[in-house]
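Researcher: Let's try something more involved. This one mixes different molecule types, so please make sure each is placed in the same coordinate frame as the others.
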Amino acid sequence: MIHYNKFTLANGLRVVVHEDHTTPMAVLNVLYDVGARDENPEQTGFAHLFEHLMFGGSVNIPEYDEPLQMAGGENNAYTTSDLTNYYIQLPAENIETAFWLESDRMLSLAFSEKSLDVQRKVVSEEFKEHYINKPYGDVWHKMRELAYSSHPYRWMTIGKELSHIENAKLEDVKAFFFKFYRPVNAILSVAGNVTTEQVKTLAEKWFGDIPPGEKYHRNLPVEPPQTAAHKLDVKANVPLDALYKCYHMYARSDKRYYAADLVSDILGGGSSSRLHQVLVKEKKLFSNIDCYHFGSLDAGLLTIEGKLVKGVKMKDAEKAIQTELEKLQAEVIVDRELQKVKNRVESLLAFEDMSLLNRANNLAFYELLGDAGLMNKEFENYDVVTAEDIHREAKLLFDEKNANTIYYYAENQG
Amino acid sequence: MNRTIPPPIKDAVEFDIKLKPYEKFTLDNGIPVYVIKSEEQDTLQLELVFPAGSWYESESLEALATNFLMKNGTSKRTALEINEAIDYHGAYLNRNAYHENATFTLHCLTKHTEVLLPVLQDVILDPIFPEEELQLYKQNQKQKLAVNLQKCDFVANRFIDKYLFGEFHPYGRVSSMMAYDALQTETLRAFYQKHYTYNNCRIFVAGNMPANMLALLNQHFGSTRWNGETSLLRPELPVQPAEEKKFRIFNDENGVQGAIRIARPFPNRYHPDFPKMLVLNTILGGYFGSRLMSNIREEKGYTYGIYSQLYNFRQVSAINIQTEAGRDVCEATIEEVYNELRRLQNEPVPQEELDLVRNYMIGSILGDLDGAFQLIQRWKNLILNDLDENYFYNNIQTIKTITAEELQQLAKQYLTPGDFYELVVI
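Model: All components are placed in one shared frame. Result:
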C-alpha cells in the first residue's frame, strides 16, 4: 500500500506527494502528457528530440545539470509513444533545488539555436546506435508500419526517419513547448523524506505563477480492427533467422488488458513459461523466445519474438508457435498455472515498489491514467481475472486475421 | 521572487554518511551469514557466494557454464521442476559468475522463503549437469555469441581487455565458438565439486526475514559439511599486455558508427591512488556533467554518450574510456579525448568544478545506500575484498578533501595520452 496525498494548483498542475521518512533521499518527478503519438506525421521524433532540448538551459537558468549536481542530485528522462517523464533524485535537504530547476523549465526554455544544433546530432547518433548499427535494429520500425495503418503508433519514438530530426526548426520547438509543456498538461509527484505541507509550500512558490496554458485534448486517428493477416519478408546481414509475430491487444484502461497481460506471461514469463519450455527446451526450434508487450496507453501489440536454431525452417518454427497458441485457445488453463502468473505479478509489483524512484514515477503515471490511487488497486485487477477470461481473450487475440508477422532472414545463409 | 538565484543547498561535506553495520551469524558448520534487516517491505534477498569465478578455471567458460548449469537439473528435480517452483512463487533465482566469485541470488516475497529454500538447497548441493542441458546451452550460447559478434561495442569490449591483460589471462580471455564446443560435463562437475563446498561458501541476506530464518538456513545449508572441504589456492597470474598501442578493426563494412575504447592499466583498489582516481575519473567521464560528456556530446554532438570507468578487478584495474561515435567523427573524437586528458594534466581543476563533483559523488553514495538491498551490496563488496568500513570512510574522506593539486599530479602520472591503448571497431 503506497500512501499519498494529492492536490491541484490554481493553474491546473496536479501534485502527488508520497512521504517516506525512512530514506534520506527525495525524488521529484514531472510527467508531461505528450508522447510520440501526439506528433505531426511529417515531424516524427519531435517529442523525444524535445526531451533532449529540455537539458539545454531554461529562461532563468543557463545550465540545468550543474546546479543539480552541486546539490548532490542526479536526473534523467524518458520519452515513450505516450508520455514524457523527467525525474530528479537528490538528498532530501536539497529538494528545493529540484523545484527551482523543474519550475523554470516549465516556465520557459532558453530555446537556443546552439542547443538545437547539437541535440539534433546527438539524437542522430542515438538513432544510429540503437536502430541502424545493431543486428535486427530496424525490426520495430518495420513492424509498426506493418501493424498500424492509421494510429500514430505506426512510427517509433525516436522518429520515422532521420530527416525529420535533422529538419527540426526552432519555431517548431517553441510551438511544441507552449502547446504541451504547460501546467494543465503536467503531473508533479514528489516522494521521499518530505512532508505534504512542505511540498505544498514549495509547489505554490515555484510552480504557482506559471501560466496554466491550454488543456490539450487528444484526438488521435483510431486504428480500425485488422481484418486480414499482414506478413513481411526481410533479408538482412544478420547471423540468424528470426520470427516476429504481433497481435493487436487492448488499451491500458480496458479491463481486458489484464487478461491479455497474463496471457503474455503464461507464454513468455520466466523459464517455466510455455514458449520457452516447449520451443527452446523440448523441441529445440528456437535459441530464445520471448512474449511481451509495452503496456501502451492506446491499444498496443502483444509480441512473440524468437531466433531460430540454425537449420530450422521458418515455417516449422511458425507452426510450432501456432500449436502453442492453439493450445491456449482450445483448453482452459489449470488453476495452478493461473495462480503462478498472478503470484508473479504480486511479486513484481512488490519489488517495483521498493525503489523510491519507481514509486514517484508510478504515482505520476497512475495519476495520468486517471487517479494515483489506481496504483494500489493494480493487483486486484489481475487477481479477478479467471481462467475463462484467459481462454476467451486468447481466442480473440490469436485470431490469425489479427496477426502481423515478420520473417527476418539471414541473407548470407542462402 | 528572483528565479536566477538558486535556493540555498546543504553541501556534501556536511553530510555525515554512516554505513549501517551488518549483523553476523555463523551456521553450525561454520558458514558466515551477513545480514541487513529491514521490515519496511515484504521482500527478501538471499545470496550465496563461492570463489568459483573465471580466475580459478583451467579452461575458458568453465566457471560460467558450471554456474549456469547448476540450476538445470538435480538428482531430485528436473530443470523444469526447478523453474516451475521458482516461477510459481513469483521468485527470481539469478546466477552469475564473475572474475573472482560466482553467486546464486534468490529474490522472493518473505512469505515464500520457507518453500523456496529446499529448491535452492537442491541447486547448490545436488546439481547433476545433464548432458542434454549442456548441449542445449552450447548451441544457444553460440547463437547468442554470433549475434553479439556483429555489434561493434561487444567486439570492442573483447579486444580492449585482451590488449590490457593478455588473451590468456582471466581478465582478457573471451568466449569463442571453440571454447563452447570444448565444454564437457565431467569438467564442469569437477569444477563444481572443487569450488562449491561448504567451507568456501558465504551467505548475504537482506530485507524482511522470516522469524526463523537462521534455523532455516541451518537446516538447508548448515547441518553438514556438504561437498567436503577444499582449500583453494588463488594462483598469481601475470598479465600480458599488448606491445602495440593503436588498433583499427573493421567488423562491419557498412557500419555507421565506430566503437572507441581508450584504456590503460591502473593499480588495484588496495593502492593509495585508487580512491583519488575515483574522483579524477568522475571529473573526466564518470557523470553526465563530465569533461568528456560536456565536450564530445554536449558541445560537438559526436555521440549519444561517452564515459570513462575504473575497473573493479581484484588484481589490477584499468581506466577505460568508451563511446560509440559517428563513423566519420571517430578520429576527431579520439583527438578530443586526448585534449581532455592533457587539459587535466596541464591545468588544475577549478574550485567550483571540484566542489560540484564532491557534492555529486556524496549525493550519489547517499542514494546508493538507500535500502537494505543496496546496503548489503556495499558490505559484500568490502567483505569479499577483505576490507572493512574504514576503507569506505577513507574513500568518503578522499572525496571530501582531495585538492586540485593532488588531482593534477595524479593526471600527470596516469593520464598521458601515449600510455593508452587506442581502439576503433567499425
